[in-house]
Amino acid sequence: MFDMISNIFKNLSSKPATRKYPFEKRETFKDSRGSVKGVDIDTCIFCGICARKCPSDAIAVDRNSKSWEIDPFKCVVCGVCAEVCPKKCLFMDEQYSASAYSKGKNKFVQQPKPAEEEPGKVSA
Ligand code: SF4
Ligand code: SF4
């Protein structure tokens, strides 16, 4: 009985064992893999290596439409895509993804460069 009362007072006067997330977030540490931040779409060459190496099939690359898409709800944050990218244009974020109310994909589309907009046009 005495042990129980002493434990109750000890727990009441000590800090909680868990954080009050999301109000109190844990500091990230160097090289932690929180999430895939995205792609520098202007540097991407749409080779598709990241999509082929992704173990959870979370990335879709379309060379024709010059689009790169990731499903963050499939991603297991292994970091392989960023490691194998030959252009090093894929980036990891140390921060974990925030909770979400609905599922969605993140799509990046490369905009045509000025010379590509009008084929045959020679810039002055
Ligand atoms: S971090 Fe891993 S699971 Fe996530 S998109 Fe990249 S290769 Fe796929
Ligand atoms: S590996 Fe890199 S360059 Fe190739 S499609 Fe993926 S992001 Fe683009």
TrEMBL record:
Residues 34-64, 66-95 form the 4Fe-4S ferredoxin-type domain. GO terms for biological process: aerobic respiration. InterPro entries: 4Fe4S_Fe-S-bd, 4Fe4S_Fe_S_CS, NADH_quinone_OxRdtase_chainI. Gene3D superfamilies: 3.30.70.3270. Residues 105-124 are annotated as: Disordered. Transmembrane segments: none annotated. Pfam families: Fer4_7. The keyword Repeat applies. One of its GO terms (cellular component) is membrane. One of its GO terms (molecular function) is lyase activity. Keywords: 4Fe-4S, Iron, Iron-sulfur, Lyase, Metal-binding, Repeat, Ubiquinone. Residues 114-124 have a biased composition (Basic and acidic residues). This is Formate hydrogenlyase subunit 6/NADH:ubiquinone oxidoreductase subunit I. It comes from Anaerobacterium chartisolvens. The lineage of its organism: Bacteria, Bacillati, Bacillota, Clostridia, Eubacteriales.
